[in-house]
Amino acid sequence: MQQSFDFKEECDVLAQCVADYGQGNWKRQTQFKNWSLDDIFVHLHFWNEMAHWSLTDEPRFRNRLEKVSAGLQSGGLRPIENELVEPRGQDLFDIWREFSTEMADKWSNLDPKQRVAWAGPDMSVRSSMTARQMETWAHGQSVFDLFGVKRNESDRIKNVVVLGVNTFGWSHKVQGMPVPDAMPKIELTAPSGDIWTFGEEAAGHISGTAVEFAQVVTQTRNVLDTDLVVQGDVAKGWMSNAQCFAGPTEKPPQKGQRFASGED
User: What is the pLDDT of residues 242-260, one digit of tens each?
Assistant: First the structure.
């Protein structure tokens, strides 16, 4: 399953950034809701465990899911994550690193269509692994931004792009908006230089880099802070409210709110 190798590469790239710049910065706040590096790795490890347990230990998965549901009714998700993932700093980073590597290796030979339980409807292991890569990439963006480092991108980002494309309808539904009849045509330049296309010209047009498209659909950048060319009402409405991840409605950052440290 290619997605497991892409997930592992995503983790490798993030781990190298932290190894080079993050030591001793575990409490330093990022631009993402003022989360610290500790907060980010608690969150990533928590849901990596959940995804892996959905495959290997469903009772354990269900038990934690009950705690998550109870937490959402009271103090929210963050206190539950912080309670159930106790290590911090280098210990947390090492646990996340080891677990994510072993998870990627174990999932690599699975049938991509195999179904696993999740917080919502069941999903394929391919979708589950894509979600883990997307979260690693998206939350990793705030780490790279914190240190002003440019991430080593590759065509592994296509998984995030496709997830963004596939959640065109969801982005409208979660905002309480009607889903347009057709998705705009999308033409994106991959890190390799390949051109990836999706959608229909009649519904508008979006062009630019795959990385910036991924930044918009994961809400790590406001579309106005990118060089994406967005034409047509459907395309503009989508890129202004895109949300490729599950959960309640989230609004993109304001223009100029998230950027790489050192940028004007």
Answer: 999 988 899 999 999 999 9
